[in-house]
Amino acid sequence: MLDSVIFYFFAGIAIVSAVLMITRRNAIHSAIFLITTLLATAGIFLQLRAEFLFISQIILFVGGIMVLFIFVIILVRLDVPLPQVRWRTQKWIALLVTLAVGMEAGVVLWFARKIPGQGLIFPNPAPADKLHPNTEELARSLFGSYLLPFEIASVLLLVAMVGAVVMAKKRIDA
Amino acid sequence: MPIGHYLFLSLALFLIGAIGVITRRNVLIVLMSIELILNAVNINLVAFSRYFGDVAGQVFALFIIAAAAAEAAVGLGIIIAFLRNRETVLADEMDLLKW
Q1: Residue B28 lies in a domain
Q2: How would residue A31 be classed by pLDDT, with cut points 50, 70 and 90?
Q3: HEC letters along B2-63
Q4: Chain A residues with CB inside 8 Å of B25's CB?
Q5: CATH number, domain at B41?
Q6: Would B95 be classed as within a structural domain?
């Protein structure tokens, strides 16, 4: 019961602020609403008893990525609304296509619920003590069976860092 | 609580992100919508991880966060480099390669 209340609370916040995020004209407002969505998602992670991801979501997404976004928005002076343009028919078509895809996925999810023997698609929750303590379990898995992907992720981050510096630095010659 | 709730929440956030990617002109907001899509996928992974009692889903969610950070860094670098050359952040004005 309490679980559902917490879930619906965070889910409502997430969806409302996601809609606000893609409709605001001001880029700074969009960034703020995206931060709200990410925080609500962090709450859902906590409700799913993924404590480590809850913390890393807040520190990495909100504290790292979104601060970077806001710095760039301020740097390129986007914190004023852009001039109004007409809402073209092309955008309505795009909206329609997206909603069609969404309806399709929703219908599949909705009817898959009613198929008998669907334990694989919609399993019952594992006992709450199965994942505890979460951080220790995660570390065991990350540095055990997923050690190679972990190392590759570090290479990916190094490449991204070098790429960002090369991209953003001023060209000295030319 | 059935897992369908999480799947529908994830689907809703994914679609909102997709609409943002398709309809917005500002490249920065397009990048933010991509972050939202990655986040929606994370909800799915964590929900299945909880319901199967297997921590692997959370490991993959961590990798997705790392990939999102890399993508944000490179994407913003490209935007700054582009802004220095063309003075615009609107996707429909970036038409140099358009036929």
Answers
A1: yes
A2: very high
A3: CCHHHHHHHHHHHHHHHHHHHHCCEHHHHHHHHHHHHHHHHHHHHHHHHHHCCCHHHHHHHH
A4: 82, 85
A5: 1.10.287.3510
A6: no
Q: What is the pLDDT of residue B52?
A: 81
Residue B92 belongs to some domain of the structure:
no
In this complex, the residue of A48, A113, A160 whose CB is nearest that of residue B47 is: A48
Q: Which residues of A touch B83 (CB under 8 A)?
A: 76
Number of domains in chain B: 1
The 10s digit of each residue's pLDDT in B46-85 is: 998 888 888 888 999 999 999 999 999 999 988 888 888 8
Chain A residues inside the 8 Å CB shell of B76: 68-69, 72, 164, 168
Contact A131 B19 (CB under 8 A): no
* ipTM reported for the complex, 2 dp: 0.91
Decide if pLDDT at A34 tops 90. Answer: yes
- Say if B91 falls within a structural domain: no
Omega into A133 within 30° of 0, i.e. cis? yes
Report pLDDT for A116. Answer: 64
CB atoms within 10 A of CB A172: 5
Q: Does A131 contact B53 at a Cβ distance shorter than 8 Å?
A: yes
Q: Which two tokens stand for residue B1?
A: 């609580």
- Please report which confidence band the pLDDT of residue A78 belongs to, taking 50, 70 and 90 as the band edges: low
Q: What is the extent of the structural domain holding B35? A: 4-86
- On the question of pLDDT at B24 being above 60, the answer is yes
User: What's the confidence (pLDDT) of residue B50?
Assistant: 85
In this structure, are residues B72 and A168 in contact, taking their beta carbons and an 8 Å threshold? no
> Taking the model in full, what pTM does it have?
0.88
Distance of CA A102 to the CA centre of its chain: 18
